[in-house]
Write a structure and sequence with these properties.
CATH class of the largest domain: Alpha Beta
Number of helices: 15
Low-confidence stretches: none
Mean pLDDT: 95
CATH architecture of the largest domain: 3-Layer(aba) Sandwich
Shape: globular
CATH topology of the largest domain: Aspartate Aminotransferase, domain 2
CATH superfamily of the largest domain: Type I PLP-dependent aspartate aminotransferase-like (Major domain)
Radius of gyration: 22 Å
Structural class: alpha/beta
Number of strands: 13
Number of domains: 2
Oligomer: single chain
Strand order of the largest sheet: 2-8-7-6-5-3-4
Strand content: 5-15%
Distance between the termini: 50 Å
Order of helices and strands: EHHHEHEHEHEHEHEEHHEEHEEHHEHH
Bound molecules: pyridoxal-5'-phosphate
Amino acid sequence: MSSDSKGAIFLDNASTTAMRKETLDAMTPYFLEDYGNPSSIHSMGRTPRDACNHVREIIGRIINAAPEEIYFTSGGTESDNWVLTSAARKAGKGKNIVISTIEHHAIIETAEALEKDGYTIRRAPVDADGIIDLDKLKELVDENTALVSVMTANNEIGSIQPLKEIAAIAHSKGALFHTDAVQAMCHIPIDVKEMGIDLLSASGHKFGGPKGVGFLFMRRGVRLEPFMRGGAQEEGKRAGTTNVPGIVGMGKAAELESADMEEKMSKISELRDHAIERIEKEIPFSKLNGHRTKRLPGNVNFSFRFVEGESLLMIMNMNGICVSTGSACASGSLDPSHVLLAIGLPHEIAHGSVRMSLSDRNTLEEIDKAVDVLKSALEKLRSMSPLYEDYVKKERCKDVI
Ligand SMILES: *Cc1c(COP(=O)(O)O)cnc(C)c1O
C-alpha cells in the first residue's frame, strides 16, 4: 500500500496525482532564496527567469515543440478557456467552432457561454467506444470553421482519439486544431509536429506536478489574443506574475514522468488489464466503457447494472479505496456524465458507473483488493435491489420455459 496516501488506496489519478519528493525539493529554493520576480530587471530576476525558460525547453522536448511555443498558465482549465474564447472572438460570429461531445467541462461550458454570446458551436459525435466519428466530423467542418477542438484522451473513459486524422480534417478547411491533452501529457507519447497540433492544453497536477499550473502550446505563427490581461509576462500573451515554483515543479515532474514513459505505460497497462479481466470474469452485468485498446494505460471504467455509482463509491471509500463515478449527484446535477450518455449508455446504466484511474505507484495487491471490495459491494447492493430481484426472477422463469 502506498505509504504516502494516508493508508488509502488511491485509484483516482485522473483527478489529480501525487508529487514526488524530488519535485517538491526542486521547487523549494524558488520560495525561499530565489524568490525574485522573473520580470525584474535586477539580479534577483535572473535565476527564476532562467529556471522558467529551462522548463519551456523540457516541455518542448517532450512534445516536440520549440521553447518559445510554450506559454505558462494556471492549468488545463485556463488553457482551454483561453483557446476557445480567443479563437471565437478572433474569428467573429459568422464563423463556427467544432468540438466533440465528450470534451472536459472546461471546453463544454466555455462553448456554451460562447453560444449564449451568439457564437456558433458545432458538436461532433463519438462512437460507442468514445472515438470521434471522422465522417461526421468531416460534415461539420467547413470553410467557416475557425477551430476544431478535440481532446487527446478522455478523462472519464480513457479513449484516445486519432489526432492526426482530426488535424488533417481541420487543416483541409483552413481551421486551427486544438487538443486538450491534460490526460495524455507525460502518460502517452505526443508529437505536436507529427500529429499536426496547432494548440495544446496541459496541466501540471495530472502528471505529478503541483496544482494551479499548466501550459498552452501555441504553434509559431498562430496568433491568439491574450485571455488574461494586465502585464507583459509570457510575451504579453498571458499576464500575471509568473508562478515560478509551480512552473519549476511542473518541469521537474515532466522530466521525471517522461524519462521512462514506455516502461511506465506497460506497467500501468498491465495493472489496468488485470483489473478489467477480473471484473469481466467475476462480476456479472458489467460493461467496460471506452475503447478496449485505444485507451489510456491507467483507465478502468465500468458500468454495473442495478446499482448506483455513488453507493459503490461510498462503500469503496469506507474500505479505504478512492475511485470516482460518472453518476448523477456526485457532480451536483441530475444527469449522469455527458460522456457516458454520448457513447450511448441509457441513463439507468450510466448511473451505475465507476472509474478507477491508476498510476505507477499502484501495486497488483492494491488492484486486487479494490476488485475484491467492488465485487462484494456489488453483491451487497444488488441483493437489496428490487430491480435486480425482478430481473433474476424473470430470467429463472425463462430457464424453466
Ligand atoms: C483535469 C482536466 C482539466 C482541468 O485541468 P486543471 O489544471 O485542473 O484546471 C481539463 N481537461 C481535462 C481532460 C482534465 O482531465
